[in-house]
Amino acid sequence: MTEKSQNNEVYPKLTENDSEKGAGVDEKPPAYEKTHGKLFGEVADWNLVMKAADFAARRHRHQKRKDNVTPYINHPLGVAYILTSEANVFDPVTLASAVLHDVVEDTKTTLEEILAEFGQEVHDVVKECSDDKTLPKAERKQLQIQNSGKHSHRAKLVHLADKLYNLRDLERKTPIGWDKKRVNEYFQWSRLVIGEMKGTNSALECALDDVINRRNL
Ligand SMILES: [Mn+2]
């Protein structure tokens, strides 16, 4: 097989005539960009979200949810699925951030790693969604109420979907060691945090209202 025909198989849209502009494999003629530009974009988007899912699965691999049985990764994947299936959110940065939203808070993963692997935009959203675990729990909870209203739109979407997933979980099953009072307090605190993010996404906010109203606080 000649070198030229190999090139032609790898780049079928490139002309076979080397004397024409853009015939070399290292150059992409404008026509090639135009035909495949969108596909490249979608492929890159899918790859970002899948890479985030793979990364989160690896980092959360030893963790379980509060029932000590369910794998932790069910939660971030479920949060991302709430965004696509209920909130109509398909922005890849938001979805990748949703899948990664607990890796800094709950594993040894650093924000520097998120920046290096996923870029500035995902880094910024994950940062906004991560509590500072060096602070006492009561202070962290208070800070969520104070800060959630100042978050970016993407961080608010992730935060609302996270709360929706957690409240539905609590509604379904009381975690080990929790009594009714503690569950009710979690609902009340969540209602305050959510209240700071009104006007972000009506589907998420309606679903959150439903689950909170069912609780009869
Ligand atoms: Mn979470």
Automatic annotation (TrEMBL):
It catalyses: guanosine 3',5'-bis(diphosphate) + H2O = GDP + diphosphate + H(+). Its EC number is 3.1.7.2. InterPro entries: HD/PDEase_dom, MESH1. Keywords: Hydrolase, Manganese, Metal-binding. One of its GO terms (molecular function) is metal ion binding. Residues 68-176 form the HD/PDEase domain. Its cofactor is Mn(2+). Residues 15-33 have a biased composition (Basic and acidic residues). ppGpp hydrolyzing enzyme involved in starvation response. Belongs to the MESH1 family. This is Guanosine-3',5'-bis(diphosphate) 3'-pyrophosphohydrolase MESH1.
